[in-house]
Amino acid sequence: MSGEKEKDKSKVHKLSLKGSAKYVAEFFNFSINTILFQRGVYPAEDFTAVKKYGLTMLVSSDDQVKAYIKKIMSQLDKWMIGGKISKLVVVITNKDSGEHVERWQFDVQIFSKSSSKKSSSKKATDKENASPTEVTPTPSVDKTEVEIQSEIQSIFRQITASVTFLPELNGDCTFNVLVYADADSDVPMEWGDSDAKEIENGEKVQLRSFSTNNHRVDTLVSYRLVE
Question: Which residues form the HORMA domain (predicted)?
Fold first, then answer.
């Protein structure tokens, strides 16, 4: 009996492409909220504590911020499931100067067995780090949700610890989310084209990554040094 239970458990933990896409989209949702909280873009009292990934996460309770993130996430879910996303970026901008002071970049890779088909059909609109589409073969070892959650925990701990090296944000700041989607993606009317919002002469720090059986997400933060 116990052997059968173990077998069932392992089946539950193996994520399909659709399940993996939702996992990544959910990670982006919590990443945006965590960055806004940790970097003090909005007051601490505007956030509510929730349990996720075995950690206490903070999510915005501000109606406008929630509506903005919800709109992004509803579209992101569709693009992720369709394999259309190559990158998600959170940019923090000083309201007074209009300068981009911090840029959090999450690069998305989809593992695929049919590499030749994938590389010929994907035309990314991402002109920022333009390079031939790289396709990584599917990992031979299936990862469990426990292993994936452990990797995600490490990333959120790093985001939390980033306050030790990132310069303090001065003045009122706002944020934007950029999504790099394939050229053939179905884009809603309210989504407009944007420049890359790079940090001029900024420092870059590579953070940890996590991967499911179908996706890999790498995290990078760029920031402007205080003169």
Answer: 18-221
Q: Compute the distance between CA of residue 102 and CA of residue 99 in angstroms, rounded to an integer.
A: 9
Are 106 and 206 a contacting pair, CB within 8 Å?
no
**Angle in degrees, CA 95, 194, 182, rounded to 5:** 145
Residue 54: which region, alpha, beta or left (left: phi > 0; alpha: psi -120 to 50)?
Answer: left
Q: Is the pLDDT of residue 199 over 50?
A: yes
Whole-prediction pTM: 0.79
What is the residue range of 69's domain?
Answer: 2-223
Q: How many domains does the chain have?
A: 1
Q: For residue 107, what are its two tokens?
A: 């690069």
Q: Which pLDDT band holds residue 163 (cuts at 50, 70, 90)? A: confident
Q: Is 184 helix (H, G, I), strand (E, B) or coil?
A: coil
Predicted confidence band of residue 85 (pLDDT cuts 50, 70, 90): confident
pLDDT of 113 over the 60 cut: no
Q: Residue 34's pLDDT is what?
A: 96
Task: For residue 174, give the 3-state DSSP assignment.
Answer: strand
- Residue pair 106/72 in contact (Cβ under 8 Å)? The answer is no
Alpha-carbon span 37 to 126, nearest angstrom:
28
Which CATH number goes with the domain that contains 85? Answer: 3.30.900.10
* DSSP helix/strand/coil, 176: strand
In DSSP notation, 59-125 reads EE--HHHHHHHHHHHHHHHHHHHTT-EEEEEEEEEETTT--EEEEEEEEEEEB-S-HHHHHHH--B-
Structure tokens at 96: 């007074």
